[in-house]
Design brief:
This protein has one helix at residues 7-27, and strands at residues 32-50, 63-64, 75-85, 90-105, 118-133, 137-138, 142-161, 168-187, 191-204, 207-223, 226-243, 246-264. It is mostly beta strands and 265 residues long. The longest helix is centred in the first third of the chain and has 21 residues, at 7-27.
Length: 265
């Protein structure tokens, strides 16, 4: 099933972000660039719910991600982050992809799969985050920059009965969520600490949700133009809506650490 987010809306968001990045690049000089790559390990918790196809007016019943779907393991992924700093603005982009498979037993009904059914589930989640920030306070080593951005989530969940494999449900949601961001940075030259905080409550067509995205990175620079980093990511998604005539809800928390290295100029 596919969430009712129109491709035209995604194209407008991508176009607007691309235009702002291009204008920033053309109008500014004295660029500073950070390019980081590494590894992230993230755990998913919370619950999902989906109404039966024949009873779409009923509220969804919540299925625990870890016990009901059996998705208990930490998920590893490559992680990348690019930050371009100019005179009046900075552009930040990052992304990751995680997936896992697990087995559980439903304590409540999920879609058309009855309660008490042993199931196997697989989840695949991609995230791309983009921000455009403008320096508001710059006191040398301390800087605070508010801005706007987009958190793009692509979530695919598939569950099927172990006894009757043809009895299955799929939840497929693509959501570009506009966010307000603020970035705080302490830069001591050899050591750099950055915190990005973004959040928004949005009602887009048939989807109503709240997203909070917090990322903290500590960078150590042992050599000129070379850096090592370690960080923590926390994403909270509380959303509900309608997919192909069925009500769904999700109350999810994705959290974990990241580390790696990169270059800066």
């Amino acid at each position: 099933m596919e969430a009712p987010l129109r491709s035209s809306m995604q194209r407008r968001l991508v176009s607007a972000t691309s235009s702002l990045i291009l204008l920033t690049s053309l109008s500014c000089s004295g660029l500073g660039i950070n390019v980081d790559a590494g590894y992230t390990s993230l755990e998913l918790s919370g619950d999902l719910g989906l109404t039966p196809s024949a009873a779409s007016t009923l509220p969804p019943q919540r299925v625990d991600i870890e016990e009901g779907f059996g998705l208990k393991d930490a998920m590893s992924s490559a992680y990348g982050r690019v930050e371009v700093e100019a005179v009046i603005a900075r552009v930040v982009a990052s992304g990751f992809q995680i997936d896992q498979t697990g087995r559980g037993a439903l304590s409540v009904q999920f879609g058309d799969i009855p309660l008490s059914t042993p199931i196997e589930s697989s989840i695949d989640m991609r995230n791309l985050k983009g921000e455009i920030l403008f320096d508001l306070i710059d006191l040398g080593p301390v800087r605070i920059s508010p801005g706007i951005g987009v958190d793009y989530f692509d979530l695919q969940l598939e569950s099927f009965s172990l006894a009757v494999p043809t009895l299955r449900e799929e939840l497929d949601v693509q959501a570009p969520v506009p966010l307000l961001f603020v970035q705080a940075e302490v830069d001591l030259g050899y050591f750099n600490l950055v915190a990005d905080i973004g959040g928004m409550k949005a009602n887009v067509q048939d989807i109503d949700g709240t997203v909070l995205d917090v990322e903290v990175l500590a960078r150590f620079r042992p050599l000129d133009h070379v850096e090592l980093f370690a960080g923590y990511r926390y994403v909270s998604i509380d959303a509900e809506g309608i997919v192909d005539g069925q009500n769904y809800l999700g109350d999810l928390v994705l959290s974990g650490f990241m580390f790696g290295g990169g270059i800066y100029f």
